[in-house]
Amino acid sequence: MATATSSEETLFNDDERKHKKLLEAISSMGGRKRKKQSERSEASVQVSEFFVNAEGTGEKVNISDLLGTVEKTSGASNKTKKQLRNLQNSKGTLALPLNKQQTEKIQRGIAYEKTTKENQKAEQIVFPLNQESSGPKQVEQVVAGWKAQTPLEQEIFRLLHSNSQPVNDPVLTPVEEASLKAMSLEEAKIRRAELQKTRALQSYYEAKAKREKNIKSKKYHKIQKKGKRKEFLKQFEEMVKTNPEGALEELKKMELSRMEERMSLKHQNSGKWAKSKAIMAKYDDSARKAMQEQLQMNKDLTQKIVVPSDDEHESNEEGLETVPDFVNDPEPIIDPVNPWMRGQLTHEEPEVSCVTTDEPQTAEQENEEEELIGEFERKRKLRQADEEDLIPTEEQKPESEVVEEDVVEVSDKEEEEDEEEEDVSEFNTLFRFMRSEKTLEEDEEGLLNEGQIRVRNIEDLEVLAEDVDPQPIAAPSLPQTAVGEATSEPPNKKKSEIDLKEVLTKDAKVVQVPFLPTVDHDEQISIIKEAFAGDDVISDFIKDKRKQEAAGKPKVVDLTLPGWGEWGGVGLKPSRWKRKRFRIKMASSPPRQDRKLPDTIISENRNTSIASHQVSQLPFPFQNTAQFESCIRTPIGQTWNTQGVVKKMTKPKVITKLGAIIEPMVKEDFINKTTTSAGKGPAIMLGENKRANKGREWSSAKHQGRRGSQKRKKQQT
Amino acid sequence: HQSAYESDNIKVLCRNPDDYVRETTRDIQRVPRNYDPTLHPFEVPREYTRALNATKLERVFAKPFVASLDGHRDGISCITKHAKSLSTVISGACDGEVKLWNLPRQECLRTVQAHEGFVRGICSRFCGTSFFTVGDDKTIKQWNLEAPGYGVREEPINTILGKAVFTGIDHHQRESTFVTCGQTVDIWDEQRSSPIRSFSWGVDSFSCVRYNPVETELLASCASDRSIVLYDTRESAPLRKVIMQLRSNTLCWNPMEAYYFTCANEDYNLYTYDIRHLDVPVTVHMDHVSAVLDVDYSPTGREFVSASFDKTIRIFPKDKGHSREVYHTKRMQHVICVRWSADNKYVLSGSDEMNIRLWKANASEKLGLLSTREKAAAHYNKKLIEKFQHHPQVRRIARHRHLPGDILKQKREQREMKEARRRREQNVRKHSKPGSVPLLTEKEKHVAAVVE
User: Fold this and answer.
1) Count of C-beta atoms within a 10 Å radius of residue B444
2) What is the pLDDT of residues A275-308, one digit of tens each?
3) ipTM over the 0.95 cut-off
4) How far is A395 from chain B (nearest CA, A)?
5) Residue of chain B nearest A657, judged by CA positions
6) Reading across the β-sheet that carries B248-253, which strands appear in turn?
7) Prediction pTM value
8) What class, spelled out in words, does domain B65-362 have in CATH?
9) Which of residues 107-136 of B touch A (CB under 8 A)?
């Protein structure tokens, strides 16, 4: 039994042991497996955060753990070892890096600034020519469409690919490496340097942002504020010149701060601090100084800002509008008998000289042609001046008189003045509003007149002209009537309030007829005599003129009604008092323009058919009417100019070559253009190759050669 | 005898033959001319009459429509120019078909069934040997521009399968990289099947991306969150983002001024931006009466053409707020894409009703070779019109355009609405504290924010 039991026991023990072993084996196997799972066996681009082993959490990693071996290695320099030791000794923890959003923002900011700056450079400065990299290119780029087929080739490619990525470059982040990959080798080198710089900048900005965020010192902020103020004052000076609107806004802000200062007791030395200082001031110099500073601050802040006025401008404008004296001079009469004999084109010397002195002679003209044109221009001007002579402008009332009258008026009617003032100001604002509306319309210069009328031929265009009634007909008629009022009736309003300059646009010019070249003097006389043998033309003309003058004079309006207030009937005349009372004399019209010209009738009626063809307002790019008129006056056609000049004047802004592709600008192109633009070449040549340019040069050279030969021939003859 | 005559003092009228003899027989006859201004009076009125006549003739000869290319079986979704040949254009339709056209012969050269669903974008390679298409089937395909031989199937050279739908594509000017947009903006190397870079800013999809043709590292894209985003391929992050009031559909860089681009917006306007000052557009171009769908610059960089949902094309000078020209025909429906030809002479438009139309860029320009005198006359007339452009009659005739009734009606309506809005704003300003309702210019109204 005992043996049996012992044998049973031994059996049992054996089983237990085996079981334990098995469990151990299993447990050991399981443990190993788990450990294996936490390892990453393959390199992947993206590392999942769920895959990372979290074994060592809670334990602190010391620098000595990481860099303990450095001490022992002989390769590391003493300096680095020393630095490491210093690092080990320092107790402070490193600050957390900025969050991702903020870092990205800083990165973008730096990148944007750089890119735009480069572009600004492109506007002016010459770029390095030929940016083609001469370095090695990627194999794929050189042999496009070729694939590695044999195992050897595949092996080589694999090697190349694996080596193309720099393995240990601690300077660059993976993102930056990706951007580097998109470039060639040489560019990449430059870029790497740039990126390093960018990173340095970035870390600097980050550090700065962090530092500033943490500062709590009031003094620091005070100093900061002061510095900003100083800077602002510096900028403000420039701002006044460059950006007046912004300056005005700033000015308003300053005004506001001034108001606040005036309201508050902040710098008035009335606070607790100030009182304590006041006690100390007797004995302490610094306290006194502090108080004075406060008062100074108050003074500075409450000082009124002075804005320069625009008076000078107005006086200048008035000066411009006065008319030269010779315009009003009566025309010298050459032939007292015959008014038709005045059409003389030849002029006396002095007049010519006076005109030429007006315009400074341009330096010696090299070309004969140009000289000729210059002469024509002078003649043309002379003729125009002549025409202007014909029309003496109306006499202007001296302004001082008007002002005096005004003063009297004001003293008489002081009660009405206020109402009037209001009216006038309303009128002014209304008028300004109207004008602004008009200018708004004018701003839409490029606006197409879109309608449902189709234009197929010239007749349609004529119909169009009738359909759309031209707006300016009514508008230009305004000035003349306005002038009449202004000069005829004594002004009963303050002159300074309605500014006539705003109300009155410029008078439309009367179309003037230049004289035709006349035939010989005696011959003309005989011809005229023969032609008008029968009739007395001169007296007819004078009569005609009188009639016109009479028609233009204001008529007396008779408002008398018979039978009112007295007896009426046949043969009865209204009494004198009644006539006196109800016959109203209208104010006399302004003096006629031809009153001093016995042989001329100048019609003062507006011709509406001409008005529809006239420009009513000064178009945008022109500064004054003189500019615009001179632009219109210069003819550009072949009738008035030589061929070369016409060609020059009608040169189009853009020339394209037929059937040539215009490539987008390349940087080299741009550089060439900037260098050539210094010379004369307003027209842009697009899509033209160099050969064409050469051809042009050649032809012009030929042209000059021909001209030269002509000159030579002339000299020979 | 002769000697006797010679000795006599005989006076003979004599002229220098240089004054009246032409040098070669090919020259035109010399006509002596006296330019004395007294002999040619009335220069201004005479030139004015000429200018008026020139303006009238310009309008009479304004026949911009050249040809219509039909053959597509669905609306045209995109057009692109051949990089090297003026006579070839490539168009993609909404049924996935791509067609190559010969313009002078006005015929289709080749038809390729490129994608399933829309063809979203086409671009041709700078060398003119192949072109790329992207479609709704999430693929980028590269095709040979030369037709395959007889009996050979049309197969793309290269196909890249993407993860999401691509909505636009553009190729680099000189290098073998291209950019696509969709969920992200990706930059691809032609030899690789995965993008070498990809940019994203937020979680938005993009509708259009374009390389800057001059500063070739710059990119701009229109996102569906109403923003326009700028990128630099050399940088690791996008540069800047402008958020506008409404979405921009497409944009186009000025090929001659590297820092300007124009975007076509849903709010019926186009905006030209300077990338150096993104907070306010340089110019607001308004005239369309419906969403603007596409825009393309002329190769000279002076003007651009825009296509709109309102069935018209308009041509704008780059610095003017209003259009100088409007093109429309009875049968043209919503214009989806538009391109300006590389020789600055023509404009191509693709519209909903399956036709591509060819227009002259200058409506009254005479086509073909011109003789020197014709050219001179044209230049003179142009200059005259320019000189007298401010005169009311000239201006009225030069500006007159025919517009279909419904568009005109819409235009009037919108003008009224705008006026009402303005009046309302004015009233609000009048009845609120001075300074509390700021006076905004038209330019400032449309930009919501600039994000760094």
Assistant:
1) 13
2) 888 888 878 888 888 888 888 888 887 777 665 4
3) no
4) 29
5) B343
6) B248-253, B260-265, B269-274, B283-286
7) 0.56
8) mainly beta
9) none
